[in-house]
Amino acid sequence: MGLFSRRKKKNQNEEILKIAQHRLLKYVTARDENGSEVVLGKGGRINVKDGVLYVTCEGKDVFSCDAETMEFGELLSHEGVRIVGYDSDGNKKSVVCNFH
Fold first, then answer.
1. Which of 54, 55, 58, 94 might form a disulfide with 63, Cβ 3.0–4.6 angstroms?
2. How many CB atoms lie within 10 A of CB 25?
3. What backbone phi and psi angles, to 5 degrees, belong to 94?
4. pLDDT over 70 (residue 51)
């Protein structure tokens, strides 16, 4: 394939999500308006149900967004993922989920 080929890449969100769904979360953080990290929860999982991605910690949902429109990327350390999406109010939010 050439440099400017029209071949589409596989959906990287799906590949990373498959890995992340089977990992336990150590903790989940988000940045507040002042730029400091806030811990949203500890000990949880990432799940997708009916097209919605849920990050659940200690039995409650700490983050949810539409699974089709989210941005999902693995951290360079491979010890977690960063999820950016729109919540039910239409606000753009970003969370970092760190694995055990």
1. 55
2. 22
3. -130, 135
4. yes
Backbone phi, psi, residue 42, to 5°: -130, 150
pLDDT at 15 over 70: yes
2 falls in which pLDDT band (50, 70, 90)?
low
Other beta carbons within 10 angstroms of residue 59's beta carbon come to 8
Say if CB 28 and CB 64 are below 8 A apart: no
CATH 1.10.3720.10 for the 12-99 domain, yes or no = no
For the record, the structure tokens of 63 come out as 């983050």
pLDDT at 72 over 90: no
For 63-100, b/e burial (b = at least 16 CB within 10 A) is bbbebeebebeeeeeeebbebebeeeeeeeeebbbbbe
Q: State residue 11's pLDDT score.
A: 63
